[in-house]
Amino acid sequence: QVQLVESGGGLVQSGGSLRLSCAASGLVYSGLAMEWYRQAPGKQREFVARIFEGGTIFYGDSVQGRFTISRDNAKNTAYLQMNSLRPEDTAVYYCYVKHGLDEYWGQGTQVTVSS
Asked: What phi-psi label fits residue 75: left (phi over 0), alpha (psi between -120 and 50 degrees) or beta?
């Protein structure tokens, strides 16, 4: 059974930092891209970051320069280091993996940034 479990969310003041983790199980993740998305209330889900096994990385425009994605293949875990957080970063953050035609999402972790 494939599982993605996010953790690390919480309440932080504007300008602060948080580190999210996504622990994956049920698949060999070493050959797959691991991704982060977020969804704020009343808004569509938004791409945040993607990391491939070889280290190629992409970021959404709104987080470029402030967020850093990384992964530990030995632990099947992806991370999202979020710095210089802003109130507009408030959202539920989701981990995502695509394996062939199958897509997997975590349950999400809430990040709230107060002004």
From this structure: alpha
What separation, in Å, do the N-terminal and C-terminal C-alpha atoms of the chain show? Answer: 40
d(C-alpha 102, C-alpha 71), whole Å: 21
Condensed to tens digits (0 to 9), the pLDDT of residues 55-113 reads 899 999 999 999 999 999 889 999 999 999 999 999 999 999 998 899 999 999 999 99
Nearest to 72, CA basis, from 35, 18, 30:
30
DSSP class per residue in 3-61: EEEEE--EEEETT--EEEEEEEESS-GGGS-EEEEEE-TTS--EEEEEE-TTS-EEE-T
Q: Is residue 71 within 8 Å of residue 34, measured between CB atoms?
A: yes
Which pair of structure tokens corresponds to residue 38? 């977020």
85 CB-near residues (< 8 Å, 6+ apart):
12, 14, 15, 16, 17, 18, 66, 111, 113
